[in-house]
Amino acid sequence: MGGCPVMHQAHTTQASAATDWWPNALNLDILHQQDQKTDPMGADFDYAEAFRQLDLEAVKQDLKDLMTDSQEWWPADWGHYGGLMIRMAWHSAGTYRNADGRGGSNTGNQRFAPLNSWPDNVNLDKARRLLWPVKKKYGNKLSWADLIILAGNMAYESMGFKTLGFAGGRADIWHPEKDIYWGSEREWLAATKNRYEDDNTRESLENPLAAVQMGLIYVNPEGVDGNPDPLKTAQDLRTTFGRMSMNDEETVALTAGGHTVGKTHGNGDSSLIEDEPEGADLKEQGLGWRNPKGSGKGADTVSSGLEGAWTTHPTRWDSGYYDILFGHEWELTKSPAGAWQWEPTDIKEEDRPLDAHIPDVRRNPMMTDADMAMIKDPDYRKISERFHQDQAYFEEVFAKTWFKLTHRDLGPKSRYLGPDVPEEDFIWQDPIPEGNADLSADDITALKKKILDSGIDQRELIVTAWDSARTFRGSDYRGGANGARIRLAPQKDWTGNEPEQLARVLDALTQIQKDFDKEVSIADLIVLAGNAAIEQAAAAAGVEINVPFNAGRGDATDEMTDVQSFSDLEPRHDGYRNWVKDTYAVSPEEMLLDRTQLMGLTAPEMTVLIGGMRVLDTNYGQSKHGVFTDRAGTLSNDFFVNLTDMNNTWHPIEKGDNNAPEFYEVRERSTGNVKWQASRVDLVFGSNSILRAYAELYAQDDNLEKFVHDFVKAWNKVMEADRYDLTQPASVV
Q: Whole-angstrom Cα distance, residue 108 to residue 168?
């Protein structure tokens, strides 16, 4: 059972009462994350503007002062909080994962469950509480999310390492992101086999997960399932860090740089540690993991269960990590808490670090199984040897990698705030050149006419605009229409983008771009083409409307595009286009909710977009599922009218691989004649009570214009989700 205190307690998560009663009901809670009702700052608060008023240099100095201001209630190791603050920042950023962009430091979610009570975050509640005076002082100008990362930076700088820089702009959330999928386990730190298709193939870790066990940020420090074996741990490291967008060199740099300072804590009986913050007694006031033995803090602290420092001077940035790692033979031992760790068999007294709290007493350094992987795995060892031989190169790589770790989910550089933003552009920031924002109203009108006269079908214009924009992820602000990466590899070849149709549309738009007498980007033309087609479709329904358009998008190049990284954005399903590529364990309607949440849309916006996309005939491959209208291509409310019409009946006609009905026939009740076909995604808007309420609203005789206007508003939100030059969104989570 090893070192983690929570491992010895049978903590499981519990479903809500509603879920207990109706476990198969579609749970829309994930979309309520877009709801701002929990935000006490109100819709008018502009965090970006508030941050611009911040005296950042004063904050940085206050944080440096804090590092050596040891508090009696939670004493600092060696009188320096640096290691604790770095761990807090690292674990805040380290939950990020490529597959869906969720996790990371962007929202300050470490303040809430489940992250505030994860086994791997033991005692980080103390780090945040130590920061409270700084947060209190600077108030609304400095979010918790920004403060946590800045504290990590200042911890390094106070110990002698120069960081690459810092960008603000992370807006806090005010409620738990409880619907993020962290794994199916019902118990903390359950065996890894629960999330691997093949326990012997570590690359088979279930997507979108990155951590190897429920409640860990990365890998188990004692080894796979608590069994030391550096070569197996190396496999876990490679998979886990790879899913965080880190290559081998970056993985080694983070491991070495993170373990150059600070220590682990396991000086006691981990089985005696009390409840985590979410389960702690009222008198604990939000703190958790109380240790009833000894002082319960300082020398008696128990966190990971491992015990000891990695280097001779744990509050100093130096080459000590590799000096110790390469300079000794290592043997397996156990900490006082019973956790596996590695200790040197031959070390001089003066090379042993001083005890963190007892003067003039020296202790053995220790290494985790992950540290031993740095010299046991052949590829990691080559990198480690170079870092050991060239400290300057190691520091350069670590500075860039630490910056990437802590800023990966902040989005493109245009969202970065503050005077410490590095000048260098990195490919992981998805750079996009500026476009021409000076197109006049007459220019836009002329371009729309050229587009509609190009001979390209209306539905293909709408589909191309949608496919370009739908890649946007509010989780890490990647994707979207800006940059027109839909015309580049890998997006131009994605199955979901229907490459032949896409190429035809892009050829027509490229010709319009060449013939136009002003500079205009393909990115702008793609969106404008979709807008023009929607205006035409609305007019056919008898509603004249102008779809908002703001020029200024740029066109990215191949050199600006990390092909491997963008592969994670490839859609495997899109309920808005009634398409699922592969077989999944979850239903198509649940996948629709996932995509909707990533795009930053609410349940009403999802509903109106689905209704509009169906009647506009935009299904993948022009399938007719859900096209409940006799005038396809007209932006009418027919989808909702016919969905709610009790003159129709609904009959399953085809089952999927899980033996549940996937497709249905819509039959006329009086004759039994088949009128339309439908997918599960279509019918959920009639079966789910909340979604049906929205559907009935748009089916009303007096709400055609409302439907069109709401559709256009939601459409425009999707098209401009990545336009940070227009507005700095408070938060999209």
A: 12
Q: Sign (positive/negative) of CA torsion 489, 491, 494, 498? A: negative
Report the DSSP pairing between strands 579-580 and 573-574: antiparallel
Tell me how far CA of residue 181 lies from CA of 102, 325, 455, in angstroms: 9, 37, 45
CB 692 within 8 A of CB 644: yes
- CA-derived radius of gyration, the chain: 28
Cα distance between residue 632 and residue 616, in whole Å: 6
Distance (Å, rounded) from C-alpha 56 to C-alpha 18? Answer: 46
Taking alpha carbons only, the member of 192, 263, 246, 237 closest to residue 375 is 237
Confidence category of residue 80, pLDDT binned at 50, 70, 90: very high
Helices (H), 558-703: 563-566, 588-598, 603-615, 638-643, 680-687, 689-699
Helices (H) and strands (E) in the chain, counts: 23, 9
Q: How far apart are CA 100 and CA 564, in angstroms?
A: 14
SS (H, E, C) 208-253: CCCCCCCCCCCCCCCCECCECCHHHHHHHHHHHHHCCCCCHHHHHH
∠ CA 505-535-684, nearest 5°, is: 85
Is-contact 682 578, C-beta < 8 A?
yes
* Helix ranges (DSSP H) in 310-440: 320-326, 369-376, 378-389, 391-407
β-strand pairing of 674-679 with 340-344? unpaired
CA distance linking residue 550 with residue 87, whole number of Å = 42
Query: How far, in Å, CA of 608 to CA of 601, rounded?
Result: 11
The whole-number pLDDT of residue 178 equals: 75
pLDDT at residue 87 tops 70: yes
Q: How far is CA 520 from the centre of its chain?
A: 32
595: pLDDT strictly greater than 80: yes
Strand residues in 31-162 grouped as ranges (E):
none
Positive or negative torsion for Cα 60, 61, 64, 66: negative
Cα–Cα distance measured from residue 674 to residue 397, given in angstroms and rounded to the nearest whole number: 64
Quick check: 166 and 149 in contact, CB under 8 A? yes
pLDDT in tens, 383-408: 999 999 999 999 999 999 999 999 99
pLDDT tens for 289-327 read 999 999 999 999 999 999 999 999 999 999 999 999 999
For 70-92, the DSSP string reads: -BTTBPPGGG--HHHHHHHHHHH
- Token readout for 461 is 């214009």
Mean pLDDT of the chain: 94
Question: How many whole angstroms separate alpha carbon 442 and alpha carbon 565?
Answer: 39
pLDDT tens digits along 152-169: 999 999 999 999 999 999
Q: Which residues contact 364 (CB under 8 A, 6 or more apart)?
A: 308, 343, 344, 347, 352
Q: Could you tell me how far CA 460 lies from the centroid of its own chain? A: 31
Residue 38 burial by Cβ neighbours in a 10 Å radius (0-12, 13-18, 19+)? exposed
The C-alpha atoms of residue 161 and residue 166 are separated, in whole angstroms, by 14
* Residue 668: C-alpha distances to residues 277, 578, 647, 672, 685 (Å): 57, 23, 6, 5, 19
Closest to 530 in 3D by CA, of 547, 543, 508: 547
Q: Which amino acid is at 716?
A: N
Query: Exposed (0-12), middle (13-18) or buried (19+): which is 159, by Cβ within 10 Å?
Result: buried
- What is the rounded distance in angstroms from the CA atom of residue 155 to the CA atom of residue 145? 16
CB-based contact 412:473 (threshold 8 Å): no
Question: Which pLDDT tens digit goes with each residue over 608-640?
Answer: 999 999 999 999 999 999 999 999 999 999 999
Q: Considering 91, 259, 265, 328, which one is annotated as catalytic?
A: 91
Per-residue tokens: 500: 């032949």
Cis peptide before 729 (omega within 30 of 0): no
Active site residue 91: yes
